């Protein structure tokens, strides 16, 4: 498997023993697929922007008192996926196949995506290994429309396709949806939605969310789930989003109480004027790798 060296890899790791594919437990997968953006475009630049920003993140985690990349057993950044001549189902199938290869090599996969459609490919791959999967979605939008722009593979429909797979779906921070999505949530036994306005009136929301989670967890983080004051460069920003500390408190407990088998961060649309979004997301990714390291034995994975 081809992987990126120091000047191009996540965190700019210098020791090849800690960034080579064979030795690393974690794999950073860059998935710059953008085809159905409905407001601001540019999410295809998001994965590379997060990798570049990560090279300025401190390697020492002051909360966990460790260098997470060492504790986890190395972080490899593999070659970016190429979506030439691949859209809609072909793109999703390609993502599923490439993710399956990494899972078959027993890697812990962290995917940096463009539009949210990519998550369907990830979930389909993970379901083959973890059939009782719960998908935890941090997002401003439900993404539960049956189709958008006559496209069932739109980013606005990705969770409708995930829902059709029969997984337990837990949504956090939702604050923008259509009546079709609201009705699906009300009528489905597999969707638990924690709206932003509900969270703001519930100091125990983190604990309430955790009660709805069953089995292994796949975590998908749409950057617009955060408030635009801390994560402004996204395709469709919405006010009243999640803030850093409350989200970190939840995610730390999510990793502590559950088997989080993989995660993705999607939908940032970098701007030239401000690096806050990609840097914040890079720091978040490293923080989550740290939380996972507390549960993962530091051993070489076998190919």
Task: Walk me through this protein's architecture.
With 303 residues, this protein is of the alpha/beta class. The protein has a single domain, classed as Ureohydrolase domain (Arginase, Chain A, 3-Layer(aba) Sandwich). Helices cover 33% and strands 16% of the residues. An 8-stranded parallel β-sheet has the order 4-1-5-10-9-6-7-8, sandwiched between helices. Strands 2-3 form a two-stranded antiparallel ribbon. The protein is globular, with a radius of gyration of 18 Å. The chain starts with 25 loop residues before the first strand and ends in a 10-residue tail after the last helix. Residues 298-303 have low confidence and may be disordered.
- Structure annotation, total helices: 10
Number of strands: 10
Structural class label? alpha/beta
- How many domains is the backbone divided into? 1
Radius of gyration: 18 Å
Question: Which H/E pattern describes the elements?
Answer: EHEEHEHEHEHEHEHHEHEH
CATH topology: Arginase, Chain A
Basic shape? globular
Mean pLDDT: 95
Low-confidence runs of at least 5 consecutive residues: 298-303
Topology diagram in text:
Layout: E1 26-31, H1 46-54, E2 60-61, E3 66-67, H2 68-71, E4 75-77, H3 88-104, E5 108-113, H4 118-129, E6 134-138, H5 158-164, E7 168-174, H6 179-187, E8 191-195, H7 196-199, H8 205-210, E9 217-222, H9 244-257, E10 260-266, H10 276-293
Parallel strand pairs: 1-4, 1-5, 5-10, 6-7, 6-9, 7-8, 9-10
Antiparallel strand pairs: 2-3
Helix pairs in contact: 1-10, 3-4, 4-5, 9-10
């Amino acid at each position: 498997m081809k992987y990126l060296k120091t000047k191009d890899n996540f965190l700019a790791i210098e020791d090849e023993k800690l960034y080579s594919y064979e030795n690393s437990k974690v794999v950073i997968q860059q998935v710059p697929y953008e085809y159905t953006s409905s407001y601001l475009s540019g999410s295809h630049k998001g994965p590379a922007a997060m990798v570049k920003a990560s090279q300025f993140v401190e390697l020492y985690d002051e909360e966990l008192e460790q260098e997470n990349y060492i504790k986890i057993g190395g972080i490899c950044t593999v070659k970016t996926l190429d979506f030439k001549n691949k859209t809609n189902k072909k793109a999703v199938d390609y993502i599923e196949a490439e993710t399956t290869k990494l899972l078959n090599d027993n890697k812990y996969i962290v995917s940096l995506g463009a539009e949210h459609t990519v998550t369907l490919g990830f979930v389909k791959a993970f379901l083959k290994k973890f059939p009782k999967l719960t998908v935890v979605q941090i997002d401003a939008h439900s993404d539960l429309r049956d189709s958008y722009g006559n496209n069932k593979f739109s980013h606005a429909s990705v969770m409708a396709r995930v829902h059709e797979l029969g997984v337990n779906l837990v949504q956090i921070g939702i604050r923008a949806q259509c009546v079709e999505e609201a009705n699906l949530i009300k009528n489905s036994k597999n969707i638990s939605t924690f709206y932003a306005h509900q969270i703001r009136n519930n100091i125990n929301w983190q604990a309430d969310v955790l009660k709805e989670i069953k089995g292994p967890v796949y975590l998908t983080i749409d950057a617009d789930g955060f408030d635009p004051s801390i994560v402004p460069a996204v395709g469709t920003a919405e006010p009243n989003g999640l803030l850093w500390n409350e989200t970190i408190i939840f995610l730390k407990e999510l990793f502590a109480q559950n088997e989080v088998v993989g995660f993705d961060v999607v939908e940032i649309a970098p701007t030239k004027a401000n690096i806050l979004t990609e840097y914040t997301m890079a720091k978040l990714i490293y923080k989550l790798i740290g939380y996972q390291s507390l549960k993962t034995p530091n051993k070489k994975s076998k190919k």
